[in-house]
Amino acid sequence: MTEVNEILMSVLSTIRVPRPGDRVHKDECAFSFASPESDGGLYVCMNSFLGFGSKYVERHHVKTGQRAYLHITRTRKTQKEDDNNSGSGDPPKKKPTRLAIGIEGGFDVEQEQYEEEVKVVLFPDRQEVTSEDLASMPDVVRERVSLSMAGLLAADSVSHTLQVQQWDGEVRQESKHAAELKQLDNGIKIPPCGWKCEVCDLQENLWMNLTDGKVLCGRRYFDGSGGNNHALLHYQQTGYPLAVKLGTITPDGADVYSYDEDDMVLDSKLPEHLSHFGIDMMTMEKTERTMTELEIAVNQRVGEWEVIQESGTTLRPLWGPGLTGMKNLGNSCYLNSVMQVLFTIPDFQTKYVSNIDKVFNEAPSDPTQDFKTQVAKLGYGLLSGEYSKPAPDPGDDPSSSTEPRGDQVGIAPRMFKALVGRGHPEFSTNRQQDAQEFLLHFINMVERNCRSGMNPSEAFRFLVEEKIVCQQSQKAKYTQRVDYIVQLPVPMDQATNMEELQEAERRREEAESSGAPPSAAPRAQIPFAACLAALSEPETLTDFWSSAVQAKTTATKTTRFASFPDHLVIQIKKFTFVKPFFDVSIDVPDTLDLSSLRAMGQQPGEELLPEVAPLPLVTPDAEVKGILGSHGNEEDDSLYSPLNPHISSPSIMLDDSTVSQLCEMGFPLEACRKAVYYTGNTGIDAAMNWVMGHMEDPDFSAPLVLPGSSSAPGTTPTESLPEEHLVTIVSMGFSRDQATRALRATNNVLERAVDWIFSHLDDLESMDVSEGGRSEGGSEASREPPPGPRVRDGTGKYELFAFISHMGTSTMCGHYVCHIKKDQQWVIFNDQKVCASEKPPKDLGYLYFYRRVVE
């Protein structure tokens, strides 16, 4: 013990007591998904408060020299008692009554189901110090170590904070309509019971409008249950905003919904509003489930929807490498599904998992905030098989279910979710999100973090060629842009069961007019070939500015693949602004040949639209005066615009208001000026179309050079570049030539130049310029243009290897699961459940993932 005393005394200065605001990682390892419940427990550094599993704590000690760690182990208590009797003197476990977590009446966070053991471990010899051992140590040691231990145990862990454990989904705001709600004196009195919908005679899920007293049924749910939307239709016809759910009225309150505010609300005058229609709130009793109770029921059975779960078949649980489940952190199934698919792609495996030791060795001092580290950690967790083990039995009666549960220990991607969602208005929340939007968000993060070295997002990147043909001159224009996902439209008019759909619609209208409940609607059957044809058919542009005829005219736009990616992602556009949800079945093929959609480029004899500016536009009654200084003199009345500081011309005037509008949208000034110039000052719409069509141009942000000017883009003399800006960029490791080019492309704005140089690394790596900014073989204007974005290309033949399905009427609600083909066997990944798929619903997917077939 004397030796331990001496060690603690020598490292006492490195042992800190957590202060408010310190990030304490006491639930999860920074490099793995080890936790206090794992074998070996969790070691928390008593200086940085980072957590490490037994596999990685030695690495941290060697790298940092830190010796004192708080070792936390938790052992699950046996729970064989039922919910009504704990058998240990504890009160019975209550069912949740609030849509909340960690507060009275909310979901139980089950923090008391573990027995916890805590001690200090000193490295490298792993000497252990318990609380009892501290009692015999010097006061200064005992006090500092005890305070540190107590502070670490009392502090909220980062994962606890990130999951918003003190979360209340029932917090409602006072309705803006409550105080001055108009109520009609129509003599209607509502009885205390025996209600039914005034349109369809439905006797449950009934809502009374607080303006006119109409009793009508609620919304129809995605699965066909619920009401028939009559209360909603009544609001749409009358505009009366507030309704109360009958059966939820008690002396304590009731469910009130505001159609105008599209949310559950509070009504401080509810007793008065109910009394208007003869309802005494103080005598009412609850007979219906509240909306909160309904939402709780959904949360408790999440993942059990029949279509996605392949209900009706016995699913065989799978375990092992590449078959690891992911815990749902609260509406995180969209993230789970996307990441499961991404880590079946070799590019992501190679980038983040194959060289994981190198990634971890190069991690910064706080690896929890490092993108590469956390992605590698997630990938290894999914692929290694270390966490693909059956979940421990929670104590349920095993005879209550004849089917294998299939639940795994799995991994909880808390650090990963917090990191990729940080600062994002949606992905930083616990709300459900669109899996397609998250995929693009994650690809964007990969792009930003892989500006040098291997970039796995290249597996999805492809070029799209857009061909626009002016119908008046028959001249064409070709542009290319980068994309990552093919969005496939759903042509409902091409349904093969159109007669059945029309008959169902006729029956629905009859039922609605007669007040009878409608029958279940059939699902539209759409051929995949029809979706592909809708994607490739020409689009008509009605307000196209043609440089050939110098006027607005009609044009057609055709979209084709200029390259085919290694992995193709197809999104079925089931959700649109016009129609929120298309309930469709599409015969998505296992193999796909898109060779016919290959772009052909300019054809022989085809004339291109001239890339020239329109005729000068000068207001006849405007006397334009030059501005003296470096841009003019007393003999030169050339026009100078405040938004045109670098170039003056005697023959062109730019519409400052249009330029300003484009700049306010976030586009570069020079690009905005060019958009207005090349569309002839014809307004914001034409300029915006030009911007969208030229965003991928290499010189998109380069200064505008007017016809007849002797200078070309980027030939600003080196002497005009601020030397201090050049020095700053060169100090970051770039050459003077690269710094020169970046400053020229951004009008000498240092911040923009730094951002530009990092987003053009591929171009800069291929630069061959001399100190003066010109190539050794000739002037800069005569050089070949820089290469475009790096894309892979090959055959357009693909095979399906994964798809993500969605259940619900909106991408922002419902549930996601994914199916992945592994060793010729379809596997369903439903959060923590990983099973062999018997009936993969390939016709009901939302996102489809294809890989190139190598011939």
From TrEMBL:
Binding positions (Zn(2+)): C197, C200, C217, H230
Region (Disordered): 73-98, 386-408, 499-522, 768-794
Feature: compositional bias, Low complexity: 513-522
Transmembrane segments annotated in the record for this chain: none
One of the GO BP terms on file: protein deubiquitination
MF annotations from Gene Ontology: cysteine-type deubiquitinase activity; zinc ion binding
Active site: C333, H815
UniProt catalytic activity: Thiol-dependent hydrolysis of ester, thioester, amide, peptide and isopeptide bonds formed by the C-terminal Gly of ubiquitin (a 76-residue protein attached to proteins as an intracellular targeting signal)
Residues bound to substrate: W207, R219, R220, Y221, F222, Y257, Y259, D262
Domain UBA: 653-694, 720-760
Keyword rRNA-binding (UniProt): no
Keywords, ordered alphabetically: Disulfide bond, Hydrolase, Metal-binding, Protease, Repeat, Thiol protease, Ubl conjugation pathway, Zinc, Zinc-finger
Main EC class the enzyme belongs to: hydrolase
Cysteine disulfide links: C193-C813
Name of the featured protein: Ubiquitin carboxyl-terminal hydrolase
Provenance organism: Cyprinus carpio (Common carp)
